[in-house]
Amino acid sequence: MSIFKKVVVQATALFVLVSTGSVYAYDVSFKPFTDVSNQDWFQNEVYSLSAIGIIDGYPDLTYKPDGILTREAFIKLLMTAKQQEVASSTIVAGAPADIEQGRWSYPYVAAAFERKWIDFMLDSEHKLHPETAITREEVASVVGKALLDSQTAEARDRWMAQGWKAEKEKRSFVDREAMKENFGPYAYYAVNQGIMEGDQTGFHPQQSLTRKEAAAIIYRLINKEVAARELEKVGFYAIRSYTAIQRLPLLNQVTLGWSHLEYSATGTAKLETASTEYRIPTGWEEVVQSANTAKINKDLMVYYGEKNLKDFLKDEPAQKAFIQSLKAVVTDSKYGFTGVTMDFEGLMDEASAPDYILFLKALKAALPTYPLSVAVQPEYYYKGYDLKEISALADTVILMAYDFTHLDSKLPSAPLPLVNDAVKRTLASVPKEKLVLGVSKQANQWITANGQSELMNPEIEAVEKRLMAPGVNQSVSLPFFLREITFQDDRGSHEVYYEDTTSIEKKLWLAKFYGLKGISLWYMGNYTDSDWALFQEK
Description:
Blueprint: H1 11-18, H2 43-51, H3 71-81, H4 106-114, H5 136-149, H6 153-171, H7 184-192, H8 211-227, E1 232-237, E2 253-265, E3 268-272, H9 284-294, E4 297-304, H10 309-312, H11 316-330, E5 339-344, H12 353-366, E6 372-376, H13 387-393, E7 396-400, H14 416-427, E8 435-440, E9 443-449, E10 452-456, H15 460-467, E11 473-477, E12 482-489, E13 492-498, H16 501-513, E14 518-522, H17 529-537
Parallel strand pairs: 1-2, 1-14, 2-4, 4-5, 5-6, 6-7, 7-8, 8-14
Antiparallel strand pairs: 2-3, 9-10, 9-13, 11-12, 12-13
Helix pairs in contact: 2-8, 3-4, 3-8, 5-7, 6-7, 11-12
């Protein structure tokens, strides 16, 4: 790379994670499947579902794509993919006779039965035979039933009366008469919706379903459901973002990174807007006017990440002075701010959590008509954020699900499985309607020479230039879902993980899967034309 920036590793924070000597202290697998390769048509489907915890591999790191799926295993996949509530303690009257409550699959089977999605699979003795291999016609039917269940009664009646018959004629599978007659209306709805398909030799209704086919079917089902979901887009206009000023119409909100807390002495503090990289820039009027023309909200971001943040949160006089200083800027009509985003980082001690809540309450009381957004770091080692209390106070919670970078293990900033885990943990305390997934456009570069590695954060422009250079190998690194770039030069061997457009799109997919409020983009100046085209498309 032609431009390098050395990474300052937060050693204290990372020690908590890797004190065992391995970054795998996270309860997330970063190992690829040994039997799923770039040549496999189902690779993306398998790794995508694995990243969000819907499918698992085996302890020997295989996926066994040609393995056969049982009825109960597929029902669990379906219920998990549709995020249906299941409870092992809930007894469902009339559930299949051969599924006892203590069985691992009982919650999923009982929930599916209660929704009348699997009644056609029960035999005359009301048994499911859960360990029987599920067939393609059974899969199509249960998926079709689940999809029809979300339609209006009128739409269902039309389909059951005539729609499925027309679909059957249209498809003309050579083995269509081999499908059980009572399966037809539901199976053909799954076909109509693009979830299942046949080939030149037919639909193969009695053929057992393989694990690779199951991954493809569930992935299509999820894609169909997330396609209709919209995400709010929040852009952080900070540092060097002027080049992206014309992108403001693509956003719902711009958060202006123009201020930070100044706290250097006990009892006094203020909002600083004129020094460091977080400052009101020359020509700010053009940015405000562009945001007004785009008719989007304008938040003022307040940043602080020094070690004495915990002291500030116990310093009531300093807090009062700061809040008054902040209020004066936020309410200044020349800026027209419509909200505040608090980005106080580095609260590792759980003892700081109550202090931060008290501060946010005082801030909210001082600016009651201004929506409050609060940026939080993942809970793994930052325990100073009481997510439930923050959620109760804030209008929006921004999860900064990145900066997991670790030198020795070469863990990049935002591998998709870890982002997913952070989101799931946060959703335990924050309603999805309030949660925004933070995406950071960055690259992590390891330069190795003489057995020693150095970690850098190269500039995005340099990464994009390097991608076009000769002698560069690049691919999608799985299961990270990040662009991996490798090359050699006189400095040594280089390995780069890059948040490119493809990986960003997968994070949008994840946010839509969970039905989150939106995504935030840190920071706007780093995003490329390709990225912005993606946001415009989505």
